[in-house]
From TrEMBL:
Molecular-function GO terms, alphabetical: kinase activity
Protein name from the UniProt record: Polyphosphate glucokinase
Taxonomic classification: Bacteria, Bacillati, Actinomycetota, Actinomycetes, Kitasatosporales
Keywords: Kinase, Transferase
Tree of life domain: Bacteria
Length: 250
């Protein structure tokens, strides 16, 4: 079974049809840059471009970097603030010709995919997926069930929003060495661990492709810390999974 997934991020909008039997992309993903400012009009035009690249007309799952309640954005940390209160589900559906659209938080989507197809398979304790990208997204699972919209990237750490110091963007913007950045990520993980006592951290986002450069440098965390197996495709896969669940009335 194939359903289309699209992942809206602070730097790029990427999507592809997803083979939900395998938990992998059915075709190479197509990506466009997120416009700046990342207004609803500009971003949804990017979503339309990605969807039309494949000639897709069926159901669509979409992620968004913020809290999502019933298809509507409640926060917008790394996109334009005009998203707050926007009916994302309706806006995308209108732009792509009336297709049925399901929307969820981007890190929640990545976490769902990792729990089903990736590094979280079979884990029933507390598992936290963290996507280190433009910001820090989080997905918290207990007993295999998602606690949606956790937004742990906005925890305060040493007087700062954690994602301002430990995101992949912070590493690039400040030109940090892998060692220096790994030390910041370690402090962040220690803080989250103190609050939630997970058995497993799954580290996702685009930087997961380079996990060998920083994960071995992280010390003193009791939980197991592993890279995301689906890497930066996890959000696309999770979006498609959410759309399938909506189609099935789950």
């Amino acid at each position: 079974m194939q359903i289309f997934g699209v992942d809206i991020g602070g730097s790029g909008i990427k999507g592809a049809p997803v083979d939900l039997d395998r938990g992998d992309l059915a075709q190479d993903r197509h990506k466009v840059l997120t416009p700046h400012p990342a207004t609803p009009e500009g971003v949804v035009e990017g979503v339309r471009e990605v969807v039309e690249h494949f000639g897709w007309t069926g159901p669509i799952g979409a992620t968004f970097p913020g809290v999502i309640m019933d298809g509507t954005a409640r926060t917008a940390a790394n996109v334009d603030k005009s998203w707050i209160g926007t009916d994302i589900r309706g806006l995308i559906s209108e732009r792509v010709g009336g297709a049925r659209v399901t929307v969820l938080n981007d890190a929640d989507a990545a976490g769902v995919a990792e729990m089903h197809f990736g590094a979280g398979r079979g884990r029933t304790g507390t598992v936290i997926t963290l996507t280190l990208g433009t910001g820090i997204g989080s997905a918290v699972f207990t007993g295999g069930h998602l606690v949606p919209n956790s937004e742990l990237g906005h925890l305060e750490l040493h007087g700062h929003d954690a994602e301002k110091k430990a995101s992949s963007k912070a590493r690039e913007d400040e030109d940090l060495t892998w060692e220096h950045w790994a030390h910041r990520v370690q402090k962040y993980l220690a803080h989250v661990e103190m609050l939630f006592s997970p058995e497993l951290f799954i580290i996702g986002g685009g930087v997961s492709r380079k996990a060998h450069k920083f994960l071995p440098l992280i010390k003193g965390i009791e939980a197991e810390v592993v890279p995301a197996e689906l890497q930066n495709n996890a959000g696309i896969v999770g979006a498609a999974m959410a759309a399938r669940a909506a189609e099935q009335g789950v």
